[in-house]
Amino acid sequence: MSSTDFTTLTRELGGDQQLLLPALTESRVDFGLRMWLLNLRSPRTVETYAKTMTRFRAFLGGLGHDLDGDRRIVALTAERWCRAKHLPDGRLLEEQTVGAATFNQRLAAISSFSTTPSSTSCCPARIRSTGLTATTGRITPTSRRTSCRR
What we know:
By secondary structure, this protein is of the alpha+beta class. It contains 5 helices and 4 strands. It has a domain of 94 residues.
């Protein structure tokens, strides 16, 4: 981050004392996502996960939520979003589902972010790539899809 990426807040400490604090111009979620992407090693993974998270956040935003919202809502929405086919404008075709590989790839991106240290301070939802339980907001082994080919 360059020095032009933040502004400075002055906080009164009492009396004549003041403390200068940096004020980030991006949200906690944006900052967490940026730090998470910087720690991924493969350029292809960075590209795929960034695209997946951008689309998922746009869908969540359309519902009035973000990754730092209620963990059950985020987890349930993640499963729904990962499972459905998407139109180019981002809307879901819920009556049509994607294949196992696409579902698992989408879920891996979301769960990878939600379980990293950079996300824990900004996002209470912990979505794990191993399945979803609506009551806890966690993904359990039953959600991961496998191919049904014989």
